[in-house]
């Protein structure tokens, strides 16, 4: 349900992230979610444009963010010069997918990358040269980055088409998960022990958030509870999945520099949460 209150709330949150980003840029002050602030600001900038302007403009801004994320990833993987056609195909898959979000063609959106782009990239890689060693790695690495950093993140844009506040709720709930992970000192036993503790601390916050914004998201109370419990679990899975990948790419979590893994580190918690939450909402609520 769109009201003046919901629009004001989106603007207030965007203003808060703008102030944090300015403080971070102009001073040495550091705070929780420091590394994520630019991307949280970016997501809310997209949502403000969608809320106050046109969704068609907002979704192409998200496409630019996906491009920068994919470009950073491509700069970190050891692909060959002859793979350039495959890399170009991956970049061109971004407008290919985003156009289907813009026109609300769900059927084509859902297969745009997992079918068509995943078939095109291997073919394009083979056009780059005669060297065969490393071909399987190049195809897998390019398709993997395309799937995570374009396709998964694109679900946030499609969710914003349904409701700006549904997308805002997802972004804020994921940010709460990252905040708890960054603030709460946890002992170093098995990963899942730490993850369970963080889930226990985060879930009450995300469930409360889901209930608080329910008048704007339109999500019924029962489903709000389910999503409030589901998102922290998906954040934990996303962080666990990306840790070895970041280590393999030479990224130090929380310390990555812009262009050297900062975007990947910031997006890790969205990579499972965005598609799963989108399809949950689409299946049960739209």
Comma- or semicolon-separated keywords:
286 residues; mainly alpha
Instruction: Report the β-strand fraction as a percent range.
Output: under 5%
Mean pLDDT: 89
Query: Helix segment count?
Result: 11
The ordered H/E elements are: HHHHHHHHHHH
Poorly predicted regions are none
For the CA atoms, what is the radius of gyration?
19 Å
Molecular shape: globular
Distance between the termini: 13 Å
| Total number of strands | 0
Structural class: mainly alpha
Main β sheet profile:
none
Number of domains: 1
Question: What is the helix fraction of residues, given as a range?
Answer: over 70%
Plain-language structure description:
The protein is mainly α. It has one domain (4-285). It is 79% helix and 0% strand. The protein is built from eleven helices and no strands. It has helices at residues 4-26, 37-52, 55-76, 84-102, 106-126, 135-162, 164-183, 191-217, 221-248, 262-267, 270-285. Helix 3 packs antiparallel against helix 4. The model has no long low-confidence stretch (mean pLDDT 89).
């Amino acid at each position: 349900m769109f009201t003046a209150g919901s629009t004001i709330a989106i603007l207030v949150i965007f203003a808060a992230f703008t102030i944090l980003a300015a403080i971070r840029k102009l001073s040495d002050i550091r705070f929780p979610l420091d590394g994520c602030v630019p991307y949280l600001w970016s997501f809310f900038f997209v949502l403000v444009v969608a809320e106050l302007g046109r969704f068609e403009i907002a979704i192409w801004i998200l496409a630019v963010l996906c491009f920068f994320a994919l470009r950073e990833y491509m700069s970190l993987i050891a692909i060959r010069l002859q793979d350039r056609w495959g890399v170009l195909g991956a970049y061109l898959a971004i407008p290919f997918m985003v156009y289907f979000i813009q026109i609300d063609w769900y059927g084509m959106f859902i297969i745009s990358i997992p079918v068509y782009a995943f078939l095109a990239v291997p073919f394009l890689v083979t056009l780059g040269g005669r060297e065969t060693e490393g071909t399987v790695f190049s195809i897998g690495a390019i398709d993997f980055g395309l799937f995570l950093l374009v396709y998964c993140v694109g679900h946030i844009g499609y969710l914003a088409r349904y409701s700006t506040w549904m997308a805002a709720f997802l972004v804020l709930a994921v940010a709460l998960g990252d905040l708890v992970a960054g603030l709460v000192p946890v002992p170093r036993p098995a990963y899942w022990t730490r993850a369970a503790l963080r889930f226990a601390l985060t879930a009450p916050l995300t469930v409360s958030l889901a209930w608080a914004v329910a008048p704007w998201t339109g999500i019924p109370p029962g489903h709000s509870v389910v999503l409030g419990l589901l998102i922290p679990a998906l954040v934990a899975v996303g962080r666990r999945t990306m840790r070895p990948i970041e280590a393999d790419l030479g990224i130090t979590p929380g310390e990555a520099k812009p262009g050297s893994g900062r975007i990947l580190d910031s997006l890790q918690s969205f990579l499972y949460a965005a598609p799963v939450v989108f399809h949950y909402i689409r299946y049960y609520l739209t």
